[in-house]
Amino acid sequence: MRETMSAIQLPDEIWIRVFGFLSVRDKLSVRLSCTFFKGLVDHWTLWKDSVIVLQKVEIYDSHFWRTLRQRKTKSIVVQKANAKALQHIATWLPWVSSVTLAQCSDGRALAELGVLKHLERLVIRQCSCRSLTSSLLSLRQLTHLCLCEVQRASVSEISAATSQLVNLTSLHYHDDNNPIPKPVLHGMLSRLPNLKHLSWKMGPKYGILPDDYFGPTKASGRPGESPDAEIRLRSLELLTYKDPCLTPAAFDALSSLTKLTVHYRHRLNNPQFCRLTKWLQGLHVLSELKISLGYPLGLYAKSIPRTVQRLSLMGVNADLKAVRILAEQVPDLLHFHLDLCCHDICDIIKEMPQMFPKLQVLKVRQQNVPASVFLHLQHLPHLQQLVILDAPQGPSPTVLNLTQKLHDQTNKRIHVLHSNSKDRATCSCGLN
Q: Domain count of the chain?
């Protein structure tokens, strides 16, 4: 086989570039074909965005670790963290920059994290270690921290340890059983000068919070009290949220937000409790909005700022009338994740080219939409990427036929992707 490859006389970098267009499954198939391709497929440039999920560390031999080393793997998910797993990571992959510990009850594993000097992103879920907060103090280089369902560590301890991580740009606190009171939150935010993104899981134990929970409002601001720490936030995510936890004035200190995500706990219908309308009216520089479940689109469509260019609606009740109002409100929409709960989806698909003529990326489900209707999307003049959200792992003949027609009828202008997977390195507790 090596002689065959030599006869073609293609440089290695050409093969590597070709393999870069393959899916992970196809790359692994090519890797098994011969020793020559195996070496090329393991080139680190083909795996720079890969995430490796480790199950039981004892099942992996030195050959496995050498392969990861050759690929320069930087992102690891450990399903059940223990000291041995972290020691192997530190020995074979000292450059790792992202670690997710899906379940951790071994304090020695947390201590091993301190050896990873290039670690920037840390996600810890279901942690029952007393040493959590002390271990965090050895990770001052962190820029991204996610704590999900943390036990045996008090809110004050978590706040004190997190406040020392002054390089943090992103903080996720996903534990609604241990709410963080306003004074503790304000103290923590004031000590994190680089923080730009905040993700909060808010369950029933939070109760009804004061207007200035995220920062002093104009009305509550007092002499000598500076809202600078809160105003620096550019992105806010609320998980498992339910009104009326936050007041209509809760976002008065967050007018500089450019990105807002609200994952509601349930679908809701009572308009008198809807806070979202008031929040959106004060966000004059918002460019990205993500809403999951919650209220019908018709209740807040007119309140969405015209500055929004990226919009995601997941499981939201809507009809054609509400989507038309939305189209008038956000004429410059470029990216649209459209996953509505409605009976008008065929009519919405038909009108997409007229309603959102500037769209460049569209994510949508194909189920229950006839092919003749779905093909109307080819008339979106600037569409570059279409993601079919409900495509099976092995796309069906129907989906493949649609894909081919869209390619042919747009001269391959539209790149069609089939998606049904989740990011294994992301905490999705707010969506469960």
A: 2
Does residue 279 contact residue 250 with C-beta atoms inside 8 Å?
yes
Q: Do 96 and 50 contact (CB within 8 A), yes or no?
A: no
**398 within some domain:** yes
pLDDT digits 0-9 by tens, 155-213: 888 999 999 999 999 999 999 888 999 999 999 999 999 999 999 999 889 999 999 99
Q: Any idea what the CATH number is for the domain that residue 38 is in?
A: 1.20.1280
pTM: 0.86
Distance CA 73, CA 7 (A): 32
Residues 6+ apart with CB under 8 A from 85: 54, 57, 78, 109
Q: Does residue 27 sit within a domain?
A: yes
Tokens 């189920």 -> residue: 367
Strand partners, 362: 336, 386
Within a domain: 86: no
Domain, as residue range, for 37? 1-46
Q: Is the pLDDT of residue 225 over 70?
A: no
The single residue listed with the structure tokens 């993104």 is: 197
Paired with 311 in beta bridges are: 289, 336
Token reading at 177: 């059983």
- What CATH code is carried by the domain that includes residue 362? 3.40.50
Among residues 306, 298, 311, 358, the alpha carbon closest in space to that of 329 is found at: 306
Instruction: Tell how far CA 288 is from the center of its chain.
Output: 13
* 364, part of any domain: yes
Which of 276, 320, 285 lies closest to 305, judged by CA? 285
Please state, in angstroms and rounded to a whole number, the distance separating the CA atoms of residues 90 and 105: 19
